[in-house]
């Protein structure tokens, strides 16, 4: 649209810097996609035996698939009925096959990918598999698509590692178009402030397990994504900003007529933008440097999950694009925070959607020149299409312009009157390494903490010290040996309630860790994803966290971007890391840990070994 503002200078410079840094790797990726399109872009390359195997069970669709003229959509699904967000996917494939036939196209389930729930595994042994499940999902996506039977990809996934894994895997088949098909958030349950209150009361021993379980069950209570603005819902926001959704698909609740019509539209659109369609739009061309920057901008503008400081570089690398934390930090300085969704605010994603949602956010960002408008998306109108909202008109999907005013200025605000002037994701650096500090959820009065360190090697040890009353003072809690090489970089969300209790008692408290906290992290200042991590390949290359001792004075300052220990670490012997854990399948992921890249490069063994 002609009324979008000129692109912000910083956004332009960061995009140009990423493109220059990625020139060779991006060219290699696009050349590979061109070769793959020539070699595997048509079922005609398959032998008769190959084809017969591929459509043997495709009742009613055999002749169309065999002819090779109509688009055959490969469905990659993360369905299981333990994850609330993925339970609705059970019936999607059958419906999608019917939608495809409406246009003379076909669809087949190409394969399934694992889908684990961080909410179930928080604080448990299984959480140590969580980050590397992203690599397993990417590999499973590649296996699903390796049959070369398909002209487009419909990707069914929502939650934390699942969408990034699907993106990484699908990008290796980027000569095909791809559309992500969400199922939407569950209806709102118990108010978030009430849930958080019960969690802190439980941490203090003032309520029991029965009360805590009742509270959690009232919050997580139905099919659909958890309603707080964590990684899962940040994923959905980013798929809109990257142009990989039908516009407005992110936050429509499951099992509703509008949700069904959005899924139908995704199938119809894939049929039109497939290799043999009238409007070919391969994923490799949709996900470019501008799309990655748009995703970063959306993350910052909405206060999204810090997990994407890891996932975005990994997804970008799969497309030959090199993104780092300096890029995120530079963008954060100019992108204002225009949304406050729990845990950054009181309301959840349903309230956010009702206040104007993604259409409002995209219109504001484009109107202020903070996002690239001139990008290729799966929608015909480009990024302008995402400044609209979907609705039903006589049962059919239609679109109208997003509202020009927020329906709730406690939830959404215009760029001209933001909650904060920046995006709230800072890079902090110093003699302890580089780390991410999510300031958007933290009171600015707590952005600088200077206090003695109390050093732990496990989160269980932190919890034990808290229960024993040993942490009732000003301190910086350091939890090390939580990086990707050490134990798979689990989220340490179980630390949020006790640290919140200490802060509420009036103590100055912060967290420093080479582990993760996620979009569920809250009001306590935290330097997370510290790289280099404590565990090195040998004593000589361990990270500085391995040299810290109790009592060392640590300074964490988001204002000045500092992560520093005010002590001389020279000559210190590194702490001995805990032994490698066994059980819950963790020993099977040893290769992933040994070869994992640093957090800033995406914390991926798969990408590191592939030279990406």
Mean pLDDT: 94
Low-confidence stretches: none
Considering DSSP H and I runs of 4 or more, what fraction of the residues is helical? 25-40%
Amino- and carboxy-terminal Cα gap: 36 Å
Number of strands: 14
Arrangement of strands in the largest sheet:
7-8-12-11-10-9-13-14
In percent terms, what proportion of residues is strand? 5-15%
How is the main sheet built? Answer: 8 strands, mixed
How many DSSP helices?
A: 23
- Radius of gyration computed on alpha carbons: 24 Å
Structural class: alpha/beta
Q: Specify the overall morphology.
A: globular
The structural domain count equals: 2
Topology, pairings included?
Layout: H1 9-21, H2 23-40, H3 48-55, H4 62-67, E1 72-77, H5 92-101, E2 106-112, H6 118-121, H7 130-145, E3 152-156, H8 162-171, E4 178-180, H9 192-203, H10 209-219, H11 231-241, H12 257-273, H13 283-286, H14 289-302, H15 308-318, H16 325-332, H17 349-355, H18 357-367, E5 388-393, E6 396-401, E7 425-430, E8 433-438, E9 448-456, H19 459-467, E10 475-479, H20 484-487, H21 496-504, E11 509-513, E12 526-531, E13 553-557, E14 562-565, H22 590-595, H23 605-609
Parallel strand pairs: 1-2, 1-3, 3-4, 9-10, 10-11, 11-12
Antiparallel strand pairs: 5-6, 7-8, 8-12, 9-13, 13-14
Helix pairs in contact: 5-12, 7-8, 8-15, 9-10, 9-21, 11-14
Question: Would you summarize the structure shown here?
Answer:
The chain has helices at 9-21, 23-40, 48-55, 62-67, 92-101, 118-121, 130-145, 162-171, 192-203, 209-219, 231-241, 257-273, 283-286, 289-302, 308-318, 325-332, 349-355, 357-367, 459-467, 484-487, 496-504, 590-595, 605-609; strands at residues 72-77, 106-112, 152-156, 178-180, 388-393, 396-401, 425-430, 433-438, 448-456, 475-479, 509-513, 526-531, 553-557, 562-565.
């Amino acid at each position: 649209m002609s009324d979008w503002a000129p692109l912000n200078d910083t956004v332009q410079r960061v995009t140009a810097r990423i493109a220059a840094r990625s020139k060779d790797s991006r060219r290699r990726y696009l050349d590979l996609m061109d070769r793959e399109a020539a070699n595997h872009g048509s079922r005609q390359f398959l032998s008769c035996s190959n084809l017969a195997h591929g459509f043997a069970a495709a009742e009613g669709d055999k002749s169309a698939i065999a002819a090779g003229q109509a688009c055959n959509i490969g469905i990659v699904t993360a369905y299981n009925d333990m994850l609330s967000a993925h339970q609705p996917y059970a019936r999607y494939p059958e419906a999608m096959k019917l939608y495809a036939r409406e246009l003379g196209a076909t669809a087949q389930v190409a394969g399934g990918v694992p889908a684990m729930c961080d909410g179930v595994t928080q604080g448990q042994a299984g959480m140590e598999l969580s980050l590397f499940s992203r690599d397993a999902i990417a590999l499973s996506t590649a296996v699903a698509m390796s049959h070369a039977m398909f002209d487009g990809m419909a990707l069914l996934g929502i939650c934390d590692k699942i969408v990034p894994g699907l993106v990484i895997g699908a990008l290796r088949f980027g000569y095909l178009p791809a559309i992500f098909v969400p199922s939407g958030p569950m209806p709102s349950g118990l108010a978030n402030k009430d849930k958080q209150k019960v969690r802190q009361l439980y941490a203090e021993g003032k309520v029991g397990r029965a009360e805590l379980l009742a509270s959690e069950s009232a919050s997580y209570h139905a099919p659909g994504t958890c309603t707080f603005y964590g990684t899962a819902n940040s994923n959905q926001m980013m798929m809109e900003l990257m142009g990989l959704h039908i516009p407005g698909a992110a936050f429509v609740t499951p099992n509703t007529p509008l949700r069904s019509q959005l899924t139908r539209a995704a199938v119809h659109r894939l049929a039109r933008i497939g290799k043999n369609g009238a409007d070919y739009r391969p994923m490799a061309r949709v996900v470019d440097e501008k799309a990655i920057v748009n995703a970063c901008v959306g993350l910052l503008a909405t206060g999204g999950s810090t997990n994407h400081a890891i996932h975005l570089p990994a997804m970008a690398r799969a497309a030959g694009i090199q993104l780092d934390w300096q890029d995120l930090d530079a963008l954060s300085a100019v992108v204002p925070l225009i949304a406050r969704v729990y845990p950054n605010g009181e309301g959840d994603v349903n309230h956010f959607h009702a206040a104007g949602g993604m259409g409002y956010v995209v219109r504001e960002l484009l109107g202020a020149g903070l996002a690239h408008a001139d990008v290729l998306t799966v929608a015909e109108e480009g990024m302008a299409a995402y400044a609209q909202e979907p609705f039903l008109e006589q049962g059919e999907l239609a679109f109208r312009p997003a509202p020009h005013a927020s329906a709730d200025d406690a939830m959404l605000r215009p760029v001209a009157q933001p909650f904060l002037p920046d995006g709230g994701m800072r890079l902090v650096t110093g003699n302890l390494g580089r780390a991410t500090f999510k300031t958007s959820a933290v009171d600015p009065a707590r952005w600088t903490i200077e206090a003695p360190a109390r050093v732990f090697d496990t989160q269980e040890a932190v919890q034990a010290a808290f229960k024993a009353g040993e942490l009732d003072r000003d301190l910086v809690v350091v939890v090390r040996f939580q990086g990707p090489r050490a134990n798979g970089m689990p989220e340490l969300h179980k630390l949020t309630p006790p640290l919140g209790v200490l802060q509420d008692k009036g103590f100055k408290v912060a967290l420093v860790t080479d582990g993760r906290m996620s979009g569920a992290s809250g009001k306590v200042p935290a330097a997370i994803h510290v790289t280099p991590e404590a565990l090195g390949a040998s004593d000589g290359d361990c990270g500085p966290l391995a040299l810290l001792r109790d009592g060392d004075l640590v300074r964490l300052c988001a204002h000045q971007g500092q992560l520093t220990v005010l002590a001389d670490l020279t000559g210190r012997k590194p702490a001995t890391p805990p032994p490698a854990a066994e059980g819950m399948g963790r020993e099977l992921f040893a290769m992933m840990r040994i070869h994992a890249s640093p957090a800033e490069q995406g914390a991926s063994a798969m990408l590191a070994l592939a030279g990406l």
